[in-house]
């Protein structure tokens, strides 16, 4: 087994194609295919199955590929640290802009793990709304934005990180707390409080503006104010599964989140965005890998 073989199986798994992997790695298809076959014989396992869909990792192969990826990252880290110590490479820098929901959930442990492995990479973080982050991305002011994926981000590199349901949040003493779902009709004559943002205004316009009898009590920039008024039974609010992860009001049972359904369950997609005309730095790629890993773990 050698490093090149690990690189080959990781790249083939990523591209699902030996031919594409050969182009990316500047190695012949036959060279990659023979090397992988030799590795399979050495380990006594089948790493890929070949089909019309491409080269698909087997269940065992996927575990080996994940281990191979971690080994390659470790080697890369050693090489970079050696270059920094020798003065051949300047410490990296990563500018990150994020919405509050990501900052309060997955980001803290992601950053802790990332900085533990890459202490020489300087990370700058700003907290903003999605539209402000998209504006910063367009101005090339940040490397990565963590946002709610909306129409305005389609012209930039982007990807989905997690999809989450939108919930109606009610007091435990509300009659609505016994509902399995809540529809716009259920909210007629109910005092509603909205978070003061463009995205929640769009949500209201899409799902509630056409329903008669909807009463907006007030809007606020403070999630704490909103949660307190909901917990005390003074109003009804909206939030996502992500924003409610680890929330004390929910954990204590003072607030009951119920899926909002308007013909179908309302979904909000969270993801990353990167300037389309800016180089995707190694630091940014590494950070996204750590973030995706943290999300898969579901650990906040």
TrEMBL record:
<dbReference type="InterPro" id="IPR000847">
    <property type="entry name" value="LysR_HTH_N"/>
</dbReference>
<dbReference type="InterPro" id="IPR050950">
    <property type="entry name" value="HTH-type_LysR_regulators"/>
</dbReference>
<dbReference type="InterPro" id="IPR036390">
    <property type="entry name" value="WH_DNA-bd_sf"/>
</dbReference>
<dbReference type="GO" id="GO:0005829">
    <property type="term" value="C:cytosol"/>
</dbReference>
<feature type="domain" description="HTH lysR-type">
    <location>
        <begin position="1"/>
        <end position="58"/>
    </location>
</feature>
<dbReference type="InterPro" id="IPR005119">
    <property type="entry name" value="LysR_subst-bd"/>
</dbReference>
<dbReference type="Pfam" id="PF03466">
    <property type="entry name" value="LysR_substrate"/>
</dbReference>
<dbReference type="InterPro" id="IPR036388">
    <property type="entry name" value="WH-like_DNA-bd_sf"/>
</dbReference>
<dbReference type="GO" id="GO:0003700">
    <property type="term" value="F:DNA-binding transcription factor activity"/>
</dbReference>
<protein>
    <submittedName>
        <fullName>LysR family transcriptional regulator</fullName>
    </submittedName>
</protein>
<keyword id="KW-0805">Transcription regulation</keyword>
<comment type="similarity">
    <text>Belongs to the LysR transcriptional regulatory family.</text>
</comment>
<dbReference type="Pfam" id="PF00126">
    <property type="entry name" value="HTH_1"/>
</dbReference>
<keyword id="KW-0804">Transcription</keyword>
<dbReference type="GO" id="GO:0003677">
    <property type="term" value="F:DNA binding"/>
</dbReference>
<keyword id="KW-0238">DNA-binding</keyword>
């Amino acid at each position: 087994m050698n490093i090149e073989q690990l690189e080959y199986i990781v790249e083939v798994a990523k591209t699902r194609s030996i031919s594409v992997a050969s182009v990316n790695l500047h190695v012949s298809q036959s060279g990659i295919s023979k090397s992988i076959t030799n590795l399979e014989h050495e380990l006594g396992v089948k790493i890929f199955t070949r089909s019309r869909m491409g080269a698909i990792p087997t269940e065992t192969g996927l575990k080996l590929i994940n281990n191979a990826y971690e080994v390659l990252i470790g080697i890369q880290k050693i090489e970079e640290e050696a270059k920094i110590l020798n003065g051949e490479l300047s410490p990296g820098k990563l500018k990150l802009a994020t919405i509050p929901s990501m900052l309060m959930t997955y980001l803290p442990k992601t950053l802790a793990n990332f900085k533990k492995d890459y202490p020489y990479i300087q990370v700058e973080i700003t907290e903003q709304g999605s539209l402000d982050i998209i504006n910063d991305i367009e101005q090339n002011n940040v490397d990565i934005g963590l946002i709610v994926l909306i129409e305005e981000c389609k012209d930039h590199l982007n990807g989905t990180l997690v999809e989450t349901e939108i919930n109606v949040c009610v007091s435990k003493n509300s009659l609505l707390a016994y509902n399995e779902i809540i529809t716009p009709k259920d909210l007629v004559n109910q005092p509603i409080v909205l978070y003061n943002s463009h995205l929640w205004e769009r949500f209201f316009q899409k799902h509630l503006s056409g329903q008669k009898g909807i009463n907006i009590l007030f809007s606020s920039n403070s999630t704490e104010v909103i949660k307190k008024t909901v917990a005390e039974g003074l109003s009804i609010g909206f939030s996502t599964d992500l924003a409610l992860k680890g929330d004390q009001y929910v954990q204590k049972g003072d607030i009951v989140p119920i899926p909002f359904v308007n013909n179908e369950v309302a979904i909000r997609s969270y993801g990353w965005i990167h300037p389309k005309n800016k180089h995707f730095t190694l630091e940014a790629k590494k950070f996204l890998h750590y973030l995706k890993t943290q999300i898969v773990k579901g650990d906040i």
